[in-house]
# Entry
Amino acid sequence: MNRKTIKLISAAAAAVLLSSCSLPASNEAQEPNSTAYVSEYDASGFVSLSETVPNVILEIRYYSEYNFVGDRIDGYEEPCALISREAADALSGAAHDAEELGYMLKIYDAYRPQTAVNNFIKWAEDIDDTRMKDYFYPELDKSVLFDQGYIAAKSGHSRGSTVDLTLFDMRTGKDVDMGGVFDYFGERSHPDYIGDLTPEQINNRNILRNIMTENGFNPLDTEWWHFTLNNEPYKDTYFDFPVSDESVNDD
# Structure
């Protein structure tokens, strides 16, 4: 990919190209209730990103306490990122294209076990636990998270070919300003949100989007950081092995 393919898009152009801000706010956790749900523990089709795509930065939020729950999430045994082999191959191309533009990909999450999703559900049911409200859902009452689709029984991440990420600017040594934080529950997280964003923030979102879509990933219309591989290999299977290098290196 050359630099002409991924170009800065002005605020005016973005307003024309992106026009679904009226969609209701929704977090990625909202997934259709598939009747094909299978709790699958076989990790043989998965790899560790640190081994297969070493030119990315890992900042695994659910291994830390800096996330919307405020605790390390169940199922995250190591601060690593696992993903299907097919998605890793595509992400390698995205990382290469990002580097050509002076960026590195920073990964927040990839494969997410069903155990972690269950942890989210348990947290959402405890409406008195609002430790992280000011950071991740200041505009919402926690009691609406189920009804508005921010928390659900399944996540596409559990199918193994979805990644949450941002861009890290190698010239400044800082994360690129996307005009909103990862896992923020609200309309600001929509990729097409314009609102009070600056032209630079809108451009940055589109740079990330273009890198990912040109390497075979589909964006989500409610989260600027979320991308799923086209033709994902396990689209009807939700896995539940732990996030650990041992899961994929158990020889």
